[in-house]
Write a structure and sequence with these properties.
The protein is mainly α. The chain is 62% helix and 3% strand. The chain has a two-stranded antiparallel sheet. The relative contact order is 0.11.
């Protein structure tokens, strides 16, 4: 973070006439990516809970019973994630109409490709492919932090 802030300060002093737009465009695409990922995670989490594969006290409960026991409920959870994703995609589309923001959209696509490739390398080539017995490996269990609930990397 400190290195990025230092680079931003240098950019502002060297190219002040366009630095603000470029820095704002990078922040905007980063926010859009983050919120889209959060909403995708919410959708997948609710599907897992409804299927009976929730964490801790939700384990074994299914359907509405399981979803009703979620401690932190998203208002209008059946539609909210999709509305947020649509809005963020609209923001990205609108960014494409401005030259200074368009660069950030291109950089965001490259960044997502790098993240996807890194995830594929980290999970191995068998992630999501059928294995012996016809089972599909969806991800691996992660418990890296002792205070974090175990979660599955898709």
């Amino acid at each position: 973070s400190a290195i990025i802030i230092a680079i931003a300060v240098v950019v502002v002093f060297v190219w002040p006439e366009f630095a603000f737009n470029y820095l704002m465009s990078i922040a905007t695409i980063a926010a859009a990516i983050n919120w889209i990922m959060i909403m995708i995670t919410e959708i997948k989490f609710r599907r897992m809970v409804a299927a009976g594969d929730g964490p801790a006290e939700l384990k074994g409960l299914k359907g509405k019973e399981a979803l009703d026991k979620i401690a932190f409920k998203l208002p209008f959870a059946n539609v909210t994630p999709y509305v947020v994703i649509a809005f963020m995609l609209l923001v990205v589309v609108l960014m494409c109409f401005s030259a200074s923001y368009r660069i950030a959209v291109i950089a965001g696509v490259i960044w997502l490709a790098v993240l996807f490739a890194a995830a594929q390398l980290a999970l191995g080539k068998s992630a999501g492919r059928p294995q012996a017995g016809g089972r599909v490996r969806r991800g691996r269990r992660m418990t890296a932090l002792p205070y974090a609930l175990p979660y599955t990397i898709p």
